[in-house]
Write a structure and sequence with these properties.
The complex is a heterodimer of chains A (about 170) and B (about 120). Helix content of chain A is about 20%, strand content about 40%. Chain A contains 4 helices and 9 strands, in the order ββααβββββββαα. The longest helix of chain A has 10 residues. Chain A is globular, with a radius of gyration of 16 Å. In chain B, about 60% of the residues lie in helices and about 5% in strands. Chain B has 5 helices and 2 strands, in the order ααααββα. Chain B has a domain of about 70 residues: Winged helix-like DNA-binding domain superfamily/Winged helix DNA-binding domain (Arc Repressor Mutant, subunit A, Orthogonal Bundle). Classes of the chains: A alpha+beta (about 170), B mainly alpha (about 120).
Amino acid sequence: MTTMQSPDTSTRFPEAAILADEHVPAVHIWRDFEATVAQVMRAHTDADLFAQWIGPDSLTTSIDEWSCRTNGAYRYVSRRGEDEYAFRGTFPYVGEDKIIQTFTWEGMPEAVALETLTLEDLGDGRTRLHGFSICDSFEARDGMLASGMEVGIHEGYAKLDRMLGEGTV
Amino acid sequence: MADQLSRVFAALADPTRRDMVARLTEADHTVNDLAAPYDVSLQAVSKHLKVLEDAGLVSRTREAQRRPVHLEAEVFDLMTKWIERYRRQAEERYARLDAVLARMQDDDSTAPTATTQQQEGTAS
């Protein structure tokens, strides 16, 4: 674990900010949301809500197993044509503003990342998400960063456009 | 390009090589300079340099004996690009979460109903 402090609340994160740690194989992510801590939490713990936003547009994500509570477990599969990418893990701790989970891509089941998601009330109806993912090696961490190359670049905005078009925002 | 990226990733997966790169961001160094802080043979340091060279991260000039090692900044910049790509992907995911949260607020008084919009893109 790093001792790194979260940025203070005068820093805004209307877009995701990423920090790849130099000293441990970890990635930090920050993002602010126009919603309460309880709402952001529910969008993470409720399987139906989670499925609506987790996967890129080019993949169909289906949740096989979902028990987002302390000592629970999960598994979901993203499919594109013949390709399948399955992810699974356990939830060592789920609280009111924190989720600790393990994360594994089944293609490399021994490379397990430990992810801590913390939600902070910014006091004006907004919530700051801080994600901290620590991998078992720099190779695994860098592989995770590089996996962004493979999928999800072109289609994300189209999906957002569609959701905006539905008048949901 | 993806091959070079994976070579760069692999090259930087080693802590000694990461440390060498960090020192080279400040200035060029000879192999002897680079080797000095590490408790490894000059031969081992040369091996590390070869990996960095193959990844295109460093180059060595032909300047006589000293052959200083030079960091190729533009290759190093690729690192920044991947991180930006990863960040953009995360941002796209969180933009989708924004939409879900907005819908949750709209639906606050009524029970949320399952939507079927996930089904649309199955043929892609």
